[in-house]
Structures are given as C-alpha cells and as structure tokens.
Amino acid sequence: MASSAAPNAPRRWQGLATQLGTRAVNIAAGLILPLLLLGLWQYAVDQHWLAEQILPAPALVWQSLVELWDNGDLTANLAISLSRLGWSLAIGGGAGFLLGIAMGISPTIKAYVYPGFQLVSQFPVIGWVPLLIIFAGIGEALKIAAISIAVVVPVAVNTFKGIRNIPRALLEVAAVYRFTFWQKVRRLVLPAAAGGIFNGLRQGVMQAWLSLVFVELLASSEGIGYLMVWGRQLLQLDIVVVGMIVIGAVGIVLDRLLAWGEARLQGWQRRAY
Known about the structure:
- The chain is mostly helical.
- The protein has eleven helices and no strands.
C-alpha cells in the first residue's frame, strides 16, 4: 500500500502546481488591460491633457476612496443600495419565478399570458419610470418597483424556457403518477430546469444592479448613484470615479458569487436524478 501511494503523491502535487500556475496566468492576463488603462490615465494626467477638475489623478481618487470609507459615507450609501437590490430581487425574482413556472407548466396560462408578457417585456426600465412616478411618486417605492421590473423579465423568461426544455418523457411520467401542481414543481421542474432558472436569476441580479444605479442617478437622495450625483454637483469628479469603481467592483463580486452558486447547483442537479 505504501509503495502504491508514494508515486501518487508527486502526481497530486504536480497537478496542484499546474492548476495554480494556470490560475496565476489567467489572473495576470486579466490584469493587463486594467493596468494599461491605469497607466494611460496617469500619463494623461501627467501630460495635462485635461484639467484636473475634469480628469482627477489616480492618487486623488484613491485618497477620496479612503476618506469616504473612513467617514462612513461610502459604506452607508452602499448598504442602502444593496438593501434596495435585495428587496427588488425578492419581489421581482419571486414574481418572475412563479410566472415562469405557471407559463411553463400550464398551457392555458401560457396561451393567455405569454403573448402579453412578450409585449411588455420589450419595454426598457426607463420607459416605466414616468408611469411609476405617477402611481408611486419619487420615493423608495419607485426605486423598488423599477428595479423589480428589471428582474421579472429575465427570471420569468429563463424559467419558462428551462421548463420547456424538460424532456417530454419526464412530463409523461409525472402525468402517469398524477402529480399535483406542487409535486410537479418540487420533484420535476426544480431539478430538471434548475440550470435555466439559475441562469435567469444570474441575469436578473446583473440587470437589477445596473437598473439600481440608473434609478439612483435619476431620483434619489441616498445610495451609490446619489453619491455620484453629489460629486458631480460639487464638481468633484474624483467622487464620481470612486462611485464608478465601487459599482464595477460590486458587480464583479456579485457575478463571482453567482458563478460559485451555479457550480454548486450543478452538483445538486446531478444528485437529484
């Protein structure tokens, strides 16, 4: 046993080293473009291509980032934006999930609802804002409603498509066993259409984050979008750039978390069958 295990140890270390080397190369390749942009940015500042009020230096942006973090302005506004994102995902994601399941399982609901849903889904979020202002005002309800609408469409569409791609044989088995609606959802739809559902959730999260920033830029007194508007009004574009960096960083973190969840979901999906 010891003699057979000994040759395997170097192979495991070799495989681990190869994996770490590949990951390091991928990370280095991904950093090339940001570093080039940072270098170009610093060169443009040094050459005074634009006034400092229009193009702040990277050092000034970093200083503003540290100051906003230390005094709590950045964390407080980010917490408000993430809270709005969470509520919108709960409302819009839940509604889209139930709507997608209903249209995917029931031919009657699909016949009555899907054509109208296709029409409504073509409207961008900005197109809903004037109507929402009339009914919800310009308060918190407007922001939650607009972001929720942005989430409903991708979640509902991908859930519906995921169910439509379920093999017909599985649906026939469910009919033979006379599954109820909720039995069909729990035992068949969720395991079989999990990939499509999660893909819709992933798209919904990113759409919600982008819509959140837009709505906060348009009408808000709190949040990351408002922080950028506040910086523009004060002609402190370093604060605007800080907001842009935070928005991009949070988007990357959300995407990575969803990718990790999708990988875990694939393992659960394989065990479900």
